[in-house]
Write a structure and sequence with these properties.
This protein has 386 residues and is an alpha/beta fold. The chain has two domains: 127 residues, Aspartate Aminotransferase, domain 1 (Alpha-Beta Complex), CATH 3.90.1150; 246 residues, 3-Layer(aba) Sandwich (Aspartate Aminotransferase, domain 2), CATH 3.40.640.10. Strands 2-8-7-6-5-3-4 form a seven-stranded mixed sheet, with helices on both faces. A three-stranded antiparallel sheet has the order 9-10-12, with helices on one face.
């Protein structure tokens, strides 16, 4: 079958847009490639590239140093006994849920869990019990809520949950719950804990052993300056044989990973960025300071930060009454803010959002953050005077 030439003209190289924009999109700030990763993207972008070096098990490749990266550097970095590279945090979560639970078992999720945690549980045929947050405005999560959820699930099913999950931090408000206390509570009931660290591993120090976590799911394209989709799955020794069990027909292939995981550009950009990723986690205190400073300044303009106070993460959610009021009468309606920010070369606030939005200050820097604050103020003044 031949395709219409006019249709084909729509494809080919597609330019993304301004490359020098100030990016405050929480999905992207931690995933922006380093210069070494950009070089690796070109070098290893061919579909077959890494497979040239594979003898049948991807993470055993010695040159390039995939084995050393996966089995030595990454376990030390996140504090688990074993690590595998996956296609993303959601795939990591599903692998744990599917291997640890059986159809009809229960998984306990925090009330701020990402939708992919629900979908992973549903795909694994697990029942879901939620730990509710305190609600507006801080959405705090009480670790003791896990005890109540575990007891409720046990009472209903006659056996304890197969797993509990904590989103660390959550992807809406950037709240960091007391993961160590949650782990302690879960372990009192012999329930293992999975931390969803899509917005933490690669940005801030995370040590699963110190936190008491049995599993960690991480995202390379959200937080480890990697070309996605790519993620990590960290597992403590007690559960490694369960999660990484081998196929009976293809004895060197791990079932939950479908025999092979992220390969090529994703993996090699993660390796290329890793030295800088490790280094930047050492400066996490500076990122938190910048986030708190930014929040304080924009609240002087009438925006309201929702979530934990003082805030402990770069991801923040703001209610934005000044922008919402302007959107009621502005010529562009609720898209006025997106247009105004685009004129000022600021990317990351989704089009149409004026009543509230979330953003990230990660790696943006104080000068650029000052420019964003000044831009917010200019926009409010411009429409207030009209």
């Amino acid at each position: 079958m031949s395709l219409d030439e006019d249709k084909l003209k729509k494809f080919g190289f597609i330019e993304r847009g301004p490359k020098d924009a100030i990016n405050i999109d929480p999905l992207q700030t931690g995933g922006i490639l380093t210069e070494d990763a950009r070089k690796a993207l070109l070098e290893w972008g061919d579909g077959y590239s890494i497979c040239d070096f594979c003898g049948g098990v991807l993470d055993l490749i010695k040159k390039p140093p995939v084995y050393e990266f996966v089995h030595e550097a990454l376990p030390e970095f996140i504090g688990t006994d074993e690590v595998r590279v996956t296609h993303g945090a959601r795939e990591s979560k599903f692998a744990v849920m599917h291997s640890m639970g059986k159809a009809g078992d229960t998984v306990v999720l925090d009330g701020l869990a990402h939708y992919s945690s629900y979908v992973a549980a549903q795909r694994a045929d697990l029942e879901i019990e939620k730990v509710q947050s305190s609600g507006h405005p801080e959405y705090n999560l009480d670790p003791e809520g896990y005890a109540q959820a575990i007891e409720k699930a046990t009472s209903q099913s006659g056996k304890p949950p197969a797993l509990a999950l904590l989103t660390y931090p959550d992807g809406n408000y950037g709240n960091l719950a007391d993961a160590k206390r949650v782990a302690d509570v879960c372990h009192e009931y012999d329930v293992p804990l999975l931390l969803n660290c899509a917005y933490s591993v690669g940005r801030m120090p995370v040590d699963a052993k110190k936190l008491g976590a049995d599993f960690i799911a991480a995202s390379g394209h959200k937080s480890m300056a990697s070309s996605g989709p790519i993620g990590l799955l960290g597992v403590q020794e007690e559960y490694a044989d369960t999660v990484f069990r081998k196929s009976s027909t293809n004895k060197n292939k791990e079932i939950e990973l479908l025999g092979c995981t992220s390969r090529g550009a994703g993996l090699m950009t993660m390796i290329a960025s890793f030295p800088q990723v490790v280094e930047r986690t050492k400066h996490w205190d500076e990122e938190v300071t910048n986030a708190r400073w930014f929040s304080e300044k924009v609240e002087e303009l009438g925006l309201i930060q929702v979530g934990q106070r003082p805030h402990n993460h770069d991801l923040m959610f703001f209610e934005t009454p000044p922008f919402y009021e302007i959107s009621k009468t502005a010529k562009k309606g609720r898209y006025f803010l997106y247009k105004e920010l685009k004129k000022r070369n600021i990317h990351g606030i989704k089009g149409g959002l004026t009543k509230y939005f979330k953003l990230s200050t990660y790696q943006v820097g104080r000068d650029n953050l000052s420019y964003v604050i000044d831009s917010f103020e200019e926009i409010i003044d411009k429409y207030t005077k009209e």
